Structure formats: structure tokens, C-alpha cells
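Explain this fold:

***
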Amino acid sequence: MTLHCANPPEPLGARVSRALVTLGALVWLSSSAGIPPAHSHEVFTGFVQHQVRLVAGARHLDLTLELTFFEDGSEHERDHLDADGDGYIRRPEIDAYVRRIEPELPQQVHLLVAGRCVPLLSLDTPRLDLLGNNRTGRGHHRLSVFLFAPTPPGLRRAQSWSSKTVSGPASAPWEPW
């Protein structure tokens, strides 16, 4: 069986050109018509993604937390980061923020091993990544925290564990101060 088309297929270049012109017209129409920008997945804007890595060695436990704040939590923190209020977040502001929250971080993380709380200490300076957006307002950012503790007695062999979860919106906002 042979299928015959009444019109021959249009060349790919012509279809792409027409699609781009159509897309451009839609963008122009939406911007000139006063249509507000759409935000995708508004339900997740209050969430924080947690990535946890725990390595249990013979002498110590290394715990790395990566907290990725979505739009609402990040917007709140970005306002606090912008110390001079100019709408931009610069390296000295990030460094001051990290110095301010660093002493409290080990006390805000609780590690239970065999039902007992293991006191944690800072292993390295926390890192704050604005994920390519150094402006205040909505965005994401990631805070990486590096902690350690002596390996509790009874934990004999080296093990590692990793977990990545998204939770929120939190019942209480992240307030490091």
C-alpha cells in the first residue's frame, strides 16, 4: 500500500523559521498585553531539598548536608544576604552571612547513632552557592555544611550512606539568626 500526499512535505528549515516567528509573536503579544509571567510548579516554591552524605570511618564520621532552598525560602534569605540593600548579593555579603550562621549550624543538626545523639563539630567553612543568580528576589540557592564527630564505640567497619529528599513547606522558616 502506498500513501500519496496531496502536498509535498515542507523543508525542515521553513518549519523551524515559521515556529520561531510564531514563538516570537507570542512572546511579544504576552509582554505587550500586560499578561503577568507564569511561574511553574508554584506548589514547590516553599520547599527545601536535603541531600545528606554520611561516611562512617574507623576514627570519625563525616557528615555533609546540602540544602537547596526553593523560591520562598531563598527569597527570604537573599533579602538578609543583601546587607547594603542594592538588590545585588556580592562575595563580601556572602562571607559575612556564612560567618554569622556558621557557629550555630552544628547545634541545629542532630545525628543519632544507635539511639544516642552524637555531638557534631564544623569540619570546614559552610559554602553558599547562589546558583548563578546574584540578585535579591525569587531564585534558588544551596547551602553546603560540613560536619564531623568521633566515631562512637561499637561502630566498627567503614560505611557510607547518602539520601536526597525534598521537604516542605517547613512549619517554621529557616531562621539562622
